Amino acid sequence: MSQKKTGARNQPEAQGRPPEDTGDAGPGGAGAAARDGQAGALAADGWLDTPDRGDGRVYVMASELDFAVKVALATGRPLLLRGMPGSGKSSLAPYIARRLGWRYYVHVVTYRTQPRELLWSFDSVRRLGDAQVAAQRGEPLDNASYVQPGVLWWALAPESARRRGRPEGTEVGDPCPDPFEKVNADRSPDHAVVLIDEIDKADPDVPNSLLVPLGSHRFVVAEINAEIHTEQAAQGTQATQGTQATRAAGPGSAPATESTHRARHLVVLTTNEERELPQALLRRCVVHVLPEHDKDMLVRIAKEHMTDWPGEVTDADEELAEAVAGNLMKVREQADKQDVRRPSTAEYLDALLACRSLDIRPGDDEWQLLTRNVLIKPQQMAGDPT
């Protein structure tokens, strides 16, 4: 092991970027990585406090994915991302939001997600309790006080969301705070990116309930009989959309003129194919399948991510990325023989980080252990009942 490599790994003063929110592998127009200036220093130990960050700081985008994003922005349609777990589906939305300077919202769907949860929720239990007290005092209740705007409401109409759907000009004593206020503080109030993650986990009623809101960008909050629709953009916003869309595409893309029209909102859906999605939803989406990354793309992704890792990136680190990627190809063949899921790009990055930190090299005894820990993950233990 060279002195150069040892120094890069073991410097006690090694610095990284603050763990705000980044995902796994993913875009940058024509394969660029997003960097919003120097993000500040953080001790290496602190960098590991958030292994799955979601701030969109790093993403390497293939040209096909870059094109799909442009189509979604040009048509105003949601972008549905398909692909294996760990392929970078969830990382795209925060990257685009960060690069464009648009507000960002995310809702991770579960099996218990209710159809209207992405639009709004209503605290009927709290209202029932308050109603008993209000009846004794002879005071009326304001149903809007029990409305909680969802991510799509915040994206389309943030001012209305703060008022909880009350008419414009109404005095609001209980304004609703932006759930992503820290991230969105200095971002465009007229633009937003929404990530609806793992939509396939939901009951079919959930995607079906989104057909009209995603198509018309409007919906009615039944409890207060208020129609929510896209708020008018601030003066001058439309003139800058073409420039902002070009920024999203990255340096390798053809420039757009300032008169180019682009949607002010981008909804990104992801699916792991656990359930079949309704055809009506697919019809309304721009669909892109993230492929399994080959060796060259893995190395390209690793080099971008390593610049965000603690410590100096050396030639030895880049050689390590090549070696781990090469061995991952063999591990994929091994996974096929064992009839288990192939290791993903995210797991490749985990293996590379472990090798870099623990001084492991493919071919070492510890590499075999690492393969079992990080890369080959059977769904069940041998002998378990199916």
Would you mind describing this structure in some detail?
With 386 residues, the chain is of the alpha/beta class. Helix content is 39%, strand content 13%. It contains 16 helices and eleven strands. The strands form four sheets. It has a five-stranded parallel sheet with strand order 4-7-10-3-11. It has a two-stranded antiparallel sheet with strand order 1-2. A hairpin with a 4-residue loop joins β8 and β9. α13 crosses α14 and α15 runs antiparallel to α16. The longest helix has 24 residues. The radius of gyration is 23 Å and the shape is elongated.
Number of DSSP-assigned strands: 11
Mean pLDDT: 82
Shape field: elongated
Low-confidence stretches: 1-45, 238-259
**Structural class per helix/strand content?**
alpha/beta
- What is the succession of H and E elements? HEEHHEHEEHEHHHEHHEEHEHEHHHH
Distance between the termini: 46 Å
Strand share of the residues? 5-15%
Q: Strand order of the main beta sheet, please? A: 4-7-10-3-11
Please give the share of residues in helix: 25-40%
Radius of gyration: 23 Å
Q: How many H/I helices?
A: 16
What structural keywords apply?
two-stranded antiparallel sheet, 5-stranded parallel beta sheet, 13% strand, elongated, 386 residues, alpha/beta, disordered N terminus
Brief overview:
This protein has helices at 3-10, 44-47, 63-75, 89-100, 124-137, 151-156, 158-162, 181-184, 205-209, 211-216, 241-249, 279-283, 295-306, 315-338, 345-358, 365-375; strands at 15-16, 42-43, 79-82, 102-108, 120-122, 147-149, 188-197, 218-221, 226-229, 265-271, 286-289.
